[in-house]
Amino acid sequence: MNQEVKSTCCYCGVGCGVLIRTDGITVQGVRGDPEHPANYGRLCTKGASLHLTAQGEGRQRHPALRPARDRQPEQVSWAQALDTAVDRFAGIIREHGPDSVAFYISGQLMTEDYYVFNKLAKGLIGTNNVDTNSRLCMSSAVAGYKQTLGADAPPCCYEDIGQAGVILIAGANPALAHPIVFRYIEDARAANPALKIIVVDPRRSETAEIADLHLPILPGSDIALFNGMLHVMLAEGLVDGDYIARHTNGFDELAGNLAEYTPQRVAGLCGIPASSIVRAARWFATQGPALSLYCQGLNQSAHGTHNNAALIHLHLATGQIGKPGAGPFSLTGQPNAMGGREVGGLANLLSAHRDLANPEHRAEVAALWGIPDVPAKPGKAAVDLFKALESGEIKAVWIACTNPAQSLPNQASVRAGLARAEFVVLQETFADTDTAAYADLLLPATGWGEKHGTVTNSERRITRVQPAVAPLGEARHDWQIVVDFARRLGRKLQNPAVDRLFPYETVESIFAEHCVTTRGRDLDISGLSYSVLEQQGPQQWPFPEGASQGQQRLYADGRFPTADGRARFIAVAHQATVEVPGKEHPLSLLSGRLRDQWHGMSRTGIVPRLFNLDDEPLLAMHPCDMRHRQLDDGDLVRLFNGRGEIVVRVASRPGLARGRVWMPMHWGSRFMNSAGVNALVGDAVDPYSQQPELKHAAVEVAKSELNYPLAVIRRCSDVAEALRVLDAARSLLPDFAYASVGLYGRASPLVVFRAATAEPATARALAAIDRCFGLDGETGAIVYTDAKRHIAKKAIAIDGQLFGVRLAGETVAQAWLKQAMAEGGLDASLLRFALAPSAAAPVSVSTRQIVCKCADVSDDQIVSAIAGGADLAGLQESLKCGTFCGGCIPDIKRLLTRQAQQHPEAA
Ligand SMILES: Nc1nc2c(c(=O)[nH]1)N[C@H]1C(S)=C(S)[C@@H](COP(=O)(O)OP(=O)(O)OC[C@H]3O[C@@H](n4cnc5c(=O)[nH]c(N)nc54)[C@H](O)[C@@H]3O)O[C@H]1N2
Ligand SMILES: Nc1nc2c(c(=O)[nH]1)N[C@H]1C(S)=C(S)[C@@H](COP(=O)(O)OP(=O)(O)OC[C@H]3O[C@@H](n4cnc5c(=O)[nH]c(N)nc54)[C@H](O)[C@@H]3O)O[C@H]1N2
Ligand code: SF4
Ligand SMILES: [Mo]
């Protein structure tokens, strides 16, 4: 019998509620939870395809121990696995002290998982070496809030988006990275024609398309812009002197600095017209409630904390905070980065927004945990933690729910650190991430659909996550793994507090303890419990004991959680990026997200249709920069700086200013033959937040001399087969100077492999490739070879349909071949076209346009349903198009109008 279980989407920090449909054994489907206040039933493409990632493919199913670094991991029991880990950790701790081990965890864990990891390190072992991937993500936002407002608390809520008069989106691309937030922005735009939207982004991003004013500032120049805006406000009398006087400190000192940020000077620093700065300032101060949305464009900078502070200043100076539609709203990246911050799971924090540097806070936590003290010495933040692995200072690392061998900057150093470490544990849901190659011990964790606990989203809302199915194989919940390890380690180290520290039998008991630690703090949730969350639904914090509901907005009374209750202005000044493009490396490299992929693609990378927009890592570049280097669209280029070199395909993007290139962060060594963009990005960090400058590196691009292209497209009967072929193809990647592999999916799933060589591929190499893709047979095959031009092609048909094609030396037909094969096949009678050097499809190939990317519905499906009498509601009912993110509804309406015009008689 099917039932629906309430859970959340495990991707971005919007924190959408989902209903998981299950027969109790497997996950059957997913839909948005109509009752969840984050999304009211909507989902984006990633959320809408979650069930496709929960079928067991690609998972780590049992603990495994690697007998030696050059050997494959071998299956072991949980007891063997944990005892081995205990022996190694205890041995290293005894010999070298607690600071010789470290934990590197993740904003994608549940709050309860996070809580016990933190307690294990700080409470049991006695080291603050516990840091997380939130260091790469939110730590500048944390430091920015704390420096100015006094606590790490986003003061806004999603409802503010619909109530704002002006929305400033800076260094964020919610159209792709927070799609449901973007739906709210679109709704606000539709409901209020007077709404002004300003987008600050060096690129003309997808989000910039909705802007009334796009400010394509020079990378890293946000402080100058915000200071310049404040200068204008001050000069034009647009600041709220009364609010400043009553609720803030430090304005005069900042104002002294502001004098030099004239629009003319700022125009030079930011590379935008002075008039745009003036306009942005006036709109911000005069259009009604002002709301800012910001993310990694501000955070991932060596001056990220001050980027955040400079933006928050605009709100403090105009009193645009603590009221509906207004405030600085930091968008959280990961689904539970907020929860991690709440339990203090970072090397410089303690439980419930307490600070490690504060002796009173340390004493409070020690008392709550029932131990004499917690260590005072700050732990190592992410970048330093991996440097310490490289230097040998840290000898063992426990990594959970993150993939540092892809996502950290300066990959050469990170990978050297992992290789040097004496003992690496990887607690993962999926097998074979880039980090797995370095792990001595692999521990299988439960994944989405199996997990339980709580998560907090961007608007401080805590949701209970319920399991829909049992753990796969031998997988265990993250908290269970930690608690089991902690108890074994505590006994081994003869720590008398171990039973008191880790008494938990249920996940609920951990949450209950966490709630207690928050009593009296800014994020007080002493009034929350699992039963309150189940009965009353997701709740925002604070929610102290006795409260009947959470708090929608913070600071309505103008009182801030600082010693004197006032917010603070910080004297921030413009700073350049750490690497400034120059003669040798004249291009500024930006990196970020695509709509349909999530980080290192361990999950989204097993869903064929999530590759349909981008199935290869592309470097976006301005046409003039390309011409200057004699590059054509689609050429393979070397992308390099002093740190490394990778080969990628270049794509012309006029929306990108000259001198800037952009690459997605998603491709690592599992989908291409290099570490991806982080082979080039440096590891300079912000002095306050220790967040690395992931968004900026100086690079150069040159045409590669890989003149012999290769492409293989292989149709598969189902996803399971596609994943097997994909895995096999991975073994080919290291053989090439350029290679990438991906999926593609419509009616049939495909595996798409592309590579290039400097010398023509030998017959032997081609035979190996054919074998790998199952294209080595003769039945149904046709071949074409032109030895003089080094062209060698082969196509195979099975059951009257094209099954696979390998093109070497010339590959121009691959684009239409891919479409045709994905739509179900290419009739065998057309096989010879597959080998022709034709970039255009033969007439008979259907070229369907996908209109609804969430439900994967094409224009011809919609047109034929309209011909059958369907209206919008009918289409939504029968095809499900336009029912997930809603982004395609305008396109569906256009098709309805077109059809009505072409066939008025039907209307
Ligand atoms: N589809 C998808 N969504 C995701 C994720 C994902 O992997 N895939 N990951 C989630 C996570 S963890 C995070 S942190 C968020 C990130 O969400 P965002 O930060 O919104 O996304 P990014 O693409 O990293 O970068 C945002 C924009 O910053 C711009 N930028 C670069 N440098 C600067 C600068 O100096 N100044 C300014 N003003 N802008 C700059 C980039 O051009 C880019 O358009 O996304 C979350 N959502
Ligand atoms: N150049 C560049 N680099 C970047 C960024 C950028 O914009 N540019 N963005 C940075 C940012 S903001 C972030 S957040 C990081 C993200 O970087 P990572 O944290 O490395 O990214 P993920 O691929 O999400 O890694 C999460 C891993 O946890 C596993 N997992 C999923 N669920 C569970 C679970 O419940 N338990 C356990 N134990 N494992 C699980 C997944 O399979 C996955 O492999 O990348 C950073 N790196
Ligand atoms: S916006 Fe998309 S990725 Fe983010 S939580 Fe909602 S469904 Fe998941
Ligand atoms: Mo992130």
From TrEMBL:
Gene Ontology molecular function, alphabetical: 4 iron, 4 sulfur cluster binding; metal ion binding; molybdopterin cofactor binding; oxidoreductase activity
Residue ranges of domain 4Fe-4S Mo/W bis-MGD-type in the record: 2-58
Protein name: Nitrate reductase
GO biological process: cellular respiration; nitrate assimilation
Record Pfam families: Fer2_BFD, Molybdop_Fe4S4, Molybdopterin, Molydop_binding
Domain of life of the organism encoding this protein: Bacteria
Keywords: 4Fe-4S, Iron, Iron-sulfur, Metal-binding, Molybdenum, Nitrate assimilation, Oxidoreductase
Listed PROSITE patterns: 4FE4S_MOW_BIS_MGD (PS51669)
Cofactor: [4Fe-4S] cluster; Mo-bis(molybdopterin guanine dinucleotide)
Keyword Membrane: no
InterPro entries: Asp_de-COase-like_dom_sf, BFD-like_2Fe2S-bd_dom, BFD-like_2Fe2S-bd_dom_sf, CT_Nitrate-R-NapA-like, MoPterin_dinucl-bd_dom, Mopterin_OxRdtase, Mopterin_OxRdtase_4Fe-4S_dom, Prok_molybdopt-oxidoreductase
Cross-referenced CDD domains: MopB_CT_Nitrate-R-NapA-like (cd02791), MopB_Nitrate-R-NapA-like (cd02754)
Recorded GO CC terms: membrane; oxidoreductase complex
Family: Belongs to the prokaryotic molybdopterin-containing oxidoreductase family. NasA/NapA/NarB subfamily.
